[in-house]
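job 3f2a | input accepted
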Amino acid sequence: MLEGKTAFVTGGSRGIGRAIAVALAKNGATVIINYCGSFEAAKETEEIIKNNGGMAYLLQGDVASSSDVERMFAWIAENVKRLDILVNNAGITRDNLILKMTDEEYSQVIDTNLKGVFYCLKHASRVMLKQRYGKIINISSISGIHGNPGQVNYSAAKAGVIGMTKTLARELSSRNINVNAIAPGYINTDMTVHLKEEIKAKALETIPLKRFGEGEDIAEAVVFLASDKASYITGQVLSVDGGMGI
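job 3f2a | predicted structure (246 res):
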């Protein structure tokens, strides 16, 4: 489905990012796995892909750093030559109620989850406009649609990602570039495994499918949006949330 395509997945070392990278490679794409500090986890993702006959590269960099993003895209231009798929997945949480949230907690989340997406979109747009082809998938969140107590920083960033998705879809559509977002619900990842049991139980009550999602649920949606089967879909937000938004 994605043979001959090159994909760049930010935050691809673990969790949802790992599932996305593995699924894209399984469907034929060469995958560039971005990681910030977790080299061992990124190496594991690379080995999973290569053990299954896929092609992958590791690329270290902090998406919150403009200079790091510039360096990474320069590496892609020099070593891979083109970029067909960008998945903006890198994200962090610094949860707290607004009365207790510090400036640092707010800024760290905005810098990675919103500014990091902006930096990557800016550089990827240049490449894809020249190619007159590209697929951009931004990983937002149900928190960016419905809000979530204790996540005013995270919700603001993820809502901003949705706004950028819709705007960029309008800006790039004439050059055969599709820009969409996926809004995951509660997914079994490092971010959710440490939640208190009572919080998990309460969250489960809001999910019609009565289960948390897996990284693979998000990954399959990414593969579809990255493929030419989704060539007439742009500017959309796909909620993969087990029905929470009903």
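job 3f2a | The beta strands are 6-9, 30-35, 56-60, 85-88, 134-139, 177-184, 237-240.
job 3f2a | closed
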